[in-house]
Amino acid sequence: MDLKKKRWFILGASLVINLCIGSGYAWSVFAGPLIKTFGWTAAATALTFTIANAVSPITMITGGKIQDKYGPKWVIFAGGILFGGGIFLSGLTTSLAWLYVTYGIIAGFGMGLVYSCTIANTVKFFPDKRGLVGGLATAGYGSGAIIFAPIAQQIIAGNGVLFTFKTLGIIYLVVILVGSRFIMTAPAGYKPEGWEPPAITATSANTGKDKTWSQMLADPLFYLLVVMFVIGAMAGLMIISQASPIAQEVIGVDPALAAVAVSCVAIANTCGRVIWGWISDKIGRYNALPLMYILSGAMMFALSTIGAGQFALFVVVVMAIGFCFGGFMGVFPALTADSFGARNNGVNYGFMFTGFAIGAYVGPVLAATVKANNNGAYTNAFLIAAALSIVGIVLTFIVRTMKKKAAAATSKA
User: Fold this and answer.
1) Cβ atoms of residues 30 and 164 within 8 Å
2) CA-to-CA distance for 350 and 58, rounded, in angstroms?
3) Among 103, 255, 331, 408, which one has the highest count of C-beta atoms within 10 angstroms of its own C-beta?
4) What angle do CA 78, 82, 83 make, to 5 degrees?
5) CB proximity list for 267: less than 8 A, separation 6 or greater
6) What domain of life does the UniProt record list for this protein's source (predicted)?
7) What is 276-300 written as a DSSP string?
8) End-to-end distance of the chain based on CA atoms, in angstroms?
9) What is the mean pLDDT for each group of 10 consecutive residues in the chain (413 residues)?
């Protein structure tokens, strides 16, 4: 099998691996039973999920650096041991401190190692389809909760939350370790036969230059892109973290129907990663980004106007927000490779992913803070997110102008 065909097999293995680490999005399934079992507060229990998301960018950067030097196979193998082992050890929990270390730190570190390699390495195999493949690879991560949440719920119902951690930890460990055996390192500068890189333009995002992480950090473009990533991730994570309580408290539905809304958002998130990635390949990253900001901002504004009894409209709106959030998650790995080269994308995307980590903190905290200060109303949080989408549009056009000038200077030289 030639490499042009084999790369799709490698993509498939990466997708399966990412399904496992993406199960972290199903944290809410474990939170309730843990609170009930140990009597912890909701805020203290939720800190576990926050820690896992906060530490994962650290190992994305270090794992990406190791991957760029030694290849992704063994980094994914080590990450699988940490992730699966951390989840398994969470099944021995007797205190919050233990849970913070096992699920938050150990599993969080493993998640970052695996994610950095599966995304960066896979994108290197597809310079001709970076947006689509980046979307597919991140879709695996986004789909984890859709698959593992109901599985975990069933095991919890029959055997308890600690047994569930042990069972899933073993499953994750086996799947990731076996899957890592099928991962190959993308050859440096790989180009599929018959494909040539597109011309450098202001809308393609392609610079044609490989930059190290230090060179990237010295480039003002990096900081603009990080802010754009924060804005794109923030609105989606605000809704992902609060969809169930919003549905219950604002729309007035029961928990079961609220869970339907959560599942719908997860599905839209997954679809957005693939579809927006494909669209960005066709029309250019900097043409796709404003469309995502416009739709996301419009839907956040619409959400501020929805009230009790409008469940169907609520589902449509939050799905559109989830769809755009998935788009940002799918497009930014390709955008990073386009802007700073594919050679060092493992490390570079780890730094870029700090935008997600910031959004993961700001979005949920903003929603909770606004709700607490406004008698349970989320309206102002939605309006702030809508306004920031306008900022995202402005930043996109600033970046396009910068790139247009750079392209003109390059052509003159």
Assistant:
1) yes
2) 7
3) 331
4) 115
5) 146, 319, 322
6) Bacteria
7) HHHHHHHH-HHHHHHHHHHHHHHHH
8) 42
9) 82 92 79 87 79 83 78 91 96 96 95 87 84 82 80 88 96 96 84 70 61 92 96 89 81 81 85 90 92 96 92 94 92 89 83 87 83 86 95 94 74 58
